[in-house]
Amino acid sequence: MSRTRLHPAWIVAAVAFVALVGAAGFRATPAVLIHPLHAEFRWPLGTISAAVSVNLVLFGLTAPFAAALMERFGVRRVVAAALLVVAAGSALTVFMTASWQLILCWGVLVGLGTGSMALSFVATVTGRWFVRRRGLVTGVLTAGSAAGQLVFLPVLATVTGEHGWRTAALIVAGAALAVVPLIWFLLRDHPAELGVTAYGATEPAPPTPHDGRGAAARALGGLAAAARTRPFWLLAGGFAICGATTNGLVGTHFIPAAHDHGMPQTTAAGLLALVGLFDIVGTIASGWLTDRVDSRLLLGAYYALRGASLLVLPSLFAATAEPNMLVFIVFYGLDWVATVPPTVALCREYFGDNGPVVFGWVFASHQIGAAVAATGAGVIRDQLGTYALAWYVAGALSIGAAVLSLLLRRDRGPVSAPVPEPALAGGWRLREP
Q: How deeply is 281 buried, as exposed, middle or buried, from its count of CB atoms within 10 A (0-12, 13-18, 19+)?
């Protein structure tokens, strides 16, 4: 490759970024629809939150299987199919008349579709296409989630207010369909398809060995092997709390909580979009730091600072966006998914080339935590008439996640191989205490 020619890895990263932007926007939509659905159908907030929880759980549980499917059938096919499923799920909501249909469409279909474009997709792309700048690119792609929130939330809130939630749902379906051609024609599975090496690699990567197992067997085998190690449980525990305090609580309930204090929904959606704006900066910076600083220390700092901010949040809500709330938005945005680059790096460090699949399971714990928080906060609001308890519990849990992350420093012991050697390429083995 000439030094003046753009490496194809950057084109792949750009296309993946667009897909992740869309996936984030599709996931963010339920936060805008909670009150319109409650007003039209009179469904309890707990019921609507349950549909969000199903979405979050499937979004997480699909990730490791999607990573294995990408190994078997290719990234391009899996992501294109996922976008079609998202479009179908979003479009079908305009016909629903019962709450179970909301769970089927936004919960099951959109959850499965967006789960196939989850952060294990990021781990797969960066693992195949980058050697140099891997942490930075992981941060940029993760920031795609923030960009999707930034692009979609204010637009959908405005459309919902002026034209109704059905129009917003159709916009999401159309956006998903619009990305499919871009994925199909520009996304490539491996550098070898274009006759190049990964960015920064000096020689072609050896092909990942296949042991004849299907995607499900590979995903479950990765879980079985990783579950024997202490680092997996520490990473999964911390990431479950990460999900509970971001997608599950703030992402789902910040707008309704602000509305409880008299803030217009469009204003609250704009604040949440600002979280996405500053998250772009924070996540890219986190990727840069991940290439230079111990990932365990980064995670400990991120979780501790998040916990402190959540403990003061209940006192910041008001009918207008006061300066102290704006300070919280900036701070929380910088920290929102800054945890992803160091978590991806640790999964690769401990689990080698099997890291994307294992990260898929760690990410599944993230979404299970998010689902519990989404439903739990809705129930707390229904029973107590306020979200305050949910914010305090989330703050305490975040501080606990900081402790779990720092405990990872004690696990760098002897290297062993609890899975068959063919399961991990390049001489990697799993680290155990």
A: middle
